[in-house]
Amino acid sequence: MTEVFEPSSSGEFSLQSSEIFPAARSTQMPTPVAPPVSAIIPAQKKPLAFPPPQVVNEPGPWKTLFYENDFSILQQPEHAWLPGEHLKNREGSFLGEDWRVSAGGEIRFRYLQEKNRIRRGPATAEDYTLIRWRNYVDVHYSDWVRVYAEILDGSVYGDQAARQGIDENRWDLTNAFVDFVLFADDETSSVFRYGRQEMLFGRQRLVSPLDWSNSRRTFQGFRYLHKEGDWKLDLFTVNPVSASSGFNDPDIAGTNFDQPNYNVYFSGAYATYTGIENTVFEAYWMWMHNSEPRVGYADGSRHLVGTRAAHLIPISDGIAYDDRIWDLEIEGGYQFGTDIGDRVSAGFATTVIGHTWKRRPWQPRLSGLFYWSSGDIDPNDGFDNTFYTYFPLGHAYWALSDNVSGQNLIDYSLQLDVKPTTKMTAATAVHWMQLASGQDTGYQVNQVPFGTAGNGTGLGSALDIYGVYNFKPWWDLQAGYSWYWFGKYVERTIPRGDCTQFYIQTSLRY
Q1: Is the Cα torsion angle 108, 112, 117, 121 positive or negative in sign?
Q2: Measured CA angle at 473 (ends 471, 474), to 5 deg
Q3: For residues 412 and 398, is the Cβ–Cβ distance under 8 A?
Q4: Measured between alpha carbons, how far is 378 from 134 in angstroms, rounded to an integer?
Q5: Cβ(323)–Cβ(358) under 8 Å?
Q6: E strand or H helix at 39, and its extent?
Q7: How many whole angstroms separate alpha carbon 469 and alpha carbon 314?
Q8: DSSP string, 192-256
Q9: For residue 412, which of 370, 367, 464 has the smallest C-alpha distance?
């Protein structure tokens, strides 16, 4: 029986037999017909994605920074409906130039129960509610100018302990900037930005908008953003604005917008290279100068030179699928400068190694983390060795209960992530924490020192369990429970029972 490929009505090739059509027999060899392209070239796989920081959820077109939202999906005729889609990418013309405008936002509700957390004031047990509402307008005029504005209202109800600046900020302007496109083509772009803006770099260990906060972290100043091929460069000099930065008090009444703190300048350069497959390399310099440094705090005038490298290693099944994936990451840097007469010499380093079983039920990922940041070795030697973490997403890295920051800290952690369904992600993590130096104090999550040096190094251990369920790309539900069993240092200096925290949160984006 002679078998040949014949084209079907759809244009694909199907197997036919000449036994069915005897008259079609011939002593000549049939003209060879090319097999389908898919039989030669396997379907292109999606690029691998690096595991995100804990509790960071970027569903669908909405990003952590709303000014980076991407609604190109709306160009697809069969796209799923999104709330507020009629407000996205509206086009028109003005003075002979095209313009495009988008608007949207988010409303978020969170209920918290916490007990004995290390925070301002004595140990307490309380439950309270946080509500946050964000709205933005994004206008592109021609190909060379963009104006973006975003307003936020954050309110808190039912709290009994001393109110935190990150919990309440009524009707404040979190973003208000203008972009001037200096040059742009398919491979290169150069943009100058001025105004109020949120910032995010790398894995948010050093600079983050702090989305967990009810008020978010924002700055005001200048940036130059350059992209060329696989390279990106971000140059910036800004002043902190919101209370989440740790340097400002919010205008809770909402009668005035928060103002920049011109005593504090934060500047730097952040370069990113992605030209190697499944690899990210970053190098950066950061400088924070506080002209009014605070005694006992790690601030002053500090430079940081650091790097981060992350790499994914897919293990194929030999056909067309990645059966397993290793993820490797290392980041660290050296900090120098001055702080109230002392010379600064400090540093940090962290390593994450993870392994994901992509084709197993629930796609489990097991990872291990080691984090170290230096603490002061001798308070009288003229050197300050306490590492300053700048503006981090501490909630994602140093236990969900938010007791300590990444200063003078050693943290060993194991984490298990699972995906029971395509819409749900859950994780559990355990931490073992201690002070890097017993001659330095501990530091709260807001970088405020606590306790008294010379009382040991044991901070304690923590267990976190949490999950996120995305009903839709625009609607999710998140919940978590965290325990923190305090160690000898806490028991001796600020005695209290162990800490527990429960939260449930839902977000609606439009």
Answers
A1: positive
A2: 90
A3: no
A4: 46
A5: yes
A6: helix 37-40
A7: 27
A8: EEEEEE----TTSSSB---TTSSS---EEEEEEEEEETTEEEEEEEEEE-SGGGTS----TT-SS
A9: 370
Side chain identity at 430, as an amino acid letter?
Answer: V
Report residue 234 as tokens: 């971000």
Contact predicate 340/381, CB 8 Å: no
Between CA 495 and CA 396 the distance in angstroms is 26
Q: Which residue has the higher pLDDT, 300 or 18?
A: 300
**C-alpha span between 305 and 287 (Å, rounded):** 9
| Strands, E assignment, 1-124 | 3-7, 13-17, 90-94, 97-115
User: Could you tell me the two tokens for 46?
Assistant: 């999606």
**How many angstroms separate the CA atoms of 244 and 143, rounded?**
34
Residue showing tokens 């009810």: 214
- List, for residues 475-488, the tens digit of each pLDDT value: 999 999 999 999 99
Q: Which is it for the CA torsion 234, 239, 242, 247, positive or negative?
A: positive
CB atoms under 10 Å from CB of 216, counted, come to: 25
- Residue 160's pLDDT is 83
In 3-state terms, what secondary structure has residue 162? coil
Q: Write the CA distances from 203 to 177, 275, 391, 397, integer angstroms.
A: 24, 19, 12, 10
Angle at 169 (CA atoms; ends 249, 245), nearest 5 degrees: 45
Distances (CA, A) of 459 to 168, 376, 402, 445, 465: 29, 16, 13, 13, 20
Q: Which tens digit of pLDDT belongs to each residue from 61-77?
A: 999 999 999 999 999 98
* Residue 228 CB-density burial (10 A; 0-12 exposed, 13-18 middle, 19+ buried): exposed
Q: What is d(CA 149, CA 152) in angstroms, rounded to the nearest whole number?
A: 10
The token duo for 461 is 């251990």
- 83 DSSP 8-state letter: T
Q: What whole-number distance in Å separates Cα of residue 281 and Cα of residue 83? A: 37
**Amino acid found at 226:** H
pLDDT in tens, 355-399: 999 989 999 999 999 999 999 999 999 999 999 999 999 999 999
- DSSP letter at 82 equals -
Of 392, 385, 436, 428, whose CA–CA distance to 410 is shortest?
436
Q: Which of 193, 100, 108, 85 is nearest to 138 (CA)?
A: 100
Distance of CA 483 to the CA centre of its chain: 23
Please report the beta strands in 62-144, taking only residues with DSSP state E, as ranges in sequence order. 90-94, 97-115, 125-141
Cβ atoms of 398 and 406 closer than 8 Å:
yes
